[in-house]
Amino acid sequence: MNNFPPGFAHYPLYFDAAQQAELIAAVREGVKGAPFFVPRMPRTGTPMSVVMSNFGELGWVTDKERGYRYDPTHPVSGNPWPAMPKLLMDLWDDVTGYPVQPEACLINWYRDGSKMGAHIDNDEQDAKAPVVSISLGDPAIFRMGGPKRGGPTKGLKLFSGDVVVMAGESRFCYHSVSKVFYGESALVPKGGRINLTMRRVRPS
Questions:
Q1: What is the mean pLDDT of residues 8-32?
Q2: In a 3-state reduction of DSSP, which class is residue 112?
Q3: pLDDT tens profile 95-144
Q4: Please, where are the H alpha helices in 63-199?
Q5: CATH superfamily of the domain spanning 8-199
Q6: Residue 134: strand pairing partners
Q7: Are the beta carbons of 96 and 132 closer than 8 angstroms?
Q8: What is the distance between the alpha carbons of residues 187 and 18, in angstroms, rounded to a whole number?
Q9: pTM above threshold 0.85
Q10: Looking at residue 2, what is its pLDDT?
Q11: Would you state the torsion angle of the CA atoms of residues 169, 117, 199, 32, taken in this order, to the nearest 10 degrees?
């Protein structure tokens, strides 16, 4: 995509309205056994503004004591994470061409006022695998910079049903969500934006 690092791809409205509703239904079912929890920053214990859960064999979690990591069970309930919906597995095959399947899909719920600071997804052992991100509900401004923190960023407004792929150089660039246009979509129960982020964790 023009002006974005090599390996970055944007698929506007990849999922139609019916598929978006199917994914939201899968999230609602999944969080019955793996409810949304508040992730906390390592060392400080500061709560993040999003709440989250996961699909897949592994789930991304973080807390003050043990920091960022992938675990096979929910940090509060102790239950295994719900299976990844087929729609997501099919998406991975379609947009990545990667030879092995994803093992984790973060479910981040952005409520009113939520943002995500600049970061690189680098807790995975298989760093060559792409990251695939799906937007559902309220639009948001996604920003991407370079491999070093700070400096100029490029913005992209993501709408419900949009898919973003970060592979190649873009996989190792700082990115963030600087704004959510809260209340512009009625898709997410109780409002906001759901972001699903698929990752391969263990070496291929």
A1: 98
A2: coil
A3: 999 999 999 999 999 999 999 999 999 889 888 899 999 999 999 999 99
A4: 86-96
A5: Alpha-ketoglutarate-dependent dioxygenase AlkB-like (2.60.120.590)
A6: 163, 196
A7: yes
A8: 11
A9: yes
A10: 67
A11: -170
